[in-house]
C-alpha cells in the first residue's frame, strides 16, 4: 500500500459522502445496504466539502451520493438529499425477489395504499419531528457537556479526513461541533422544553419496546421506508452518542436490537441472518419470519400493527399542529413574495418563527421554533404519492382515523384542502426548495 492509499478503478462503485455522526448519511447507508448495492464511503472532510459537496453537488449538506457516469466532468453524477437518492436508486435498481431479500426484493414504499401512506408519514415524522429528539440528545442543555470529547473527535476526524494528530482533531472538532449547538433554538430546544423532551423520549422508547416485542420492523415483518427514515436519528445521534446510547441500551434493548437489525448487523430477521431448517440441511433467511412466542395479531395485506398506531398517535399528536401552521406560514410567505405572473419562487429554509407546544405527564410547555419550510416539501411528497386517487385517500383517511380518530382526519384534510386552494406546489431543483404555480385548477 502506497502513502496515498490503494487505488480503485475509476467509477467502479457508488460512493457515499458523509459521516458516522450524520443522521441522513445513516439513512442512506442503511438503505443502500438493504438494496444489496455495493458502495464505498468517503468522509466529508473540509477538502471534500469544498470540491465535492459545494463544487460538484452545489450543496451545503451531506450526504452526497456519487454515481459512476463517464459523461460527467468528474466521472460521477452527484445527488444530494436522501429522498432524491432513494428515488433514484428505486428507479434504476428496481426490486425483484430474484435479487435477494429485503429492499432488494420488494420496494421501500409498500405497494398497498394504507401501508404506503403510513410509511411516508413516518418518513415525514422522522425528518421533521424525530430529528428534534436527535438534536436535543446531542446538543441540548446539559447533554452536550457530558459527551463533548466524543463529539469533538467525531467532528475533528471527519473535518480533517481522519488522519491528523489526535489533539489537533479534538481542537478542530470542538470548534466545528460547537456551531451546531446554535441550531437548538431553531428546533425549539431550550431549558423550557428540555424536561418535556426527555419525558417524551422515554415514552417513545416504551412504545417502541412494546412494538418490537411482537415485530422486527415498524410496519411488521418487512422493512420499509418507515424504518429507513427512523434509523437515521436512532443509528446516529440517539443510538451512537454516549448519553442517549446508554439510555437505549440499558432501558430499551429491543430498540437497540432494531437499530442493529436495520443497519444489517447480525440480528434475527436482519438482511444477512440465516438459520438451518428443521432438518439442519438447508440455510434459510430469518428475514420475513414472525417472532416465536410473540403471537402478534395477523396482519391483512394492507394493515399496520396496532402497536405502530400508538407510536404514530404519540408523534402526530404533537407534530400535526406544527405542520398545519408551517403550511399556513409557507403559503403566506409565497403570497407576499409573488405576483399574478410569478411562476416560480425559491424558498428559504426558514421563514421566521412560530409558537409550538409540547406535552408530557400532564405538563404543557410553549416555546418558539423556526418555521421550517422543508416540511412543506415533505408534505407535498406524501400527498403526491399516496393521497391523490380516491382509493388512496380512503385508505389514508382510514389509517389516520385508527391513529387519532376523526379529529386527526379532519386536520389532515384541512391541511390538504388549504394547500390545494393556494395553488402552489413545493419541489426541489438543484438542491433548492422551489414553489411552482399550478396553472388552472390546482391539483395535488
In short:
With 444 residues, the chain is an alpha+beta fold.
What does it look like?
The protein has 444 residues and is α+β, with helices and mostly antiparallel strands. The protein folds into 3 domains: 81 residues, Glutaredoxin, CATH 3.40.30.10; 173 residues, Glutathione S-transferase Yfyf (Class Pi), Chain A, domain 2 (Up-down Bundle), CATH 1.20.1050.10; 131 residues, no CATH class. Helices cover 50% and strands 14% of the residues. α1 packs across α8, α4 runs antiparallel to α12 and α9 packs across α10. It is globular and about 70 Å long. InterPro entries: Glutathione-S-Trfase_C_sf (IPR036282), Glutathione_S-Trfase_N (IPR004045), GST_C (IPR004046), Thioredoxin-like_sf (IPR036249). Pfam families: GST_C, GST_N_3.
- The count of β-strands is 11
Counting structural domains, the number is 3
Distance between termini?
A: 56 Å
CATH domain class of the largest domain: Mainly Alpha
Biggest sheet, in brief? 4 strands, mixed
Computed over alpha carbons, the radius of gyration is 22 Å
Estimate the strand proportion: 5-15%
Low-confidence stretches: none
What best-fitting shape do the alpha-carbon axes yield? Answer: globular
What average pLDDT do the residues reach? 93
Structural class of the helices, strands and pairings?
A: alpha+beta
The count of helical stretches stands at 13
User: How are helices and strands ordered from N to C?
Assistant: EHEHEEHHHHHHHHEEHEEEHHEE
Reported CATH architecture of the largest domain: Up-down Bundle
Helicity range: 40-55%
Strand order of the largest sheet: 2-1-3-4
Q: What is the CATH fold-level name of the largest domain?
A: Glutathione S-transferase Yfyf (Class Pi), Chain A, domain 2
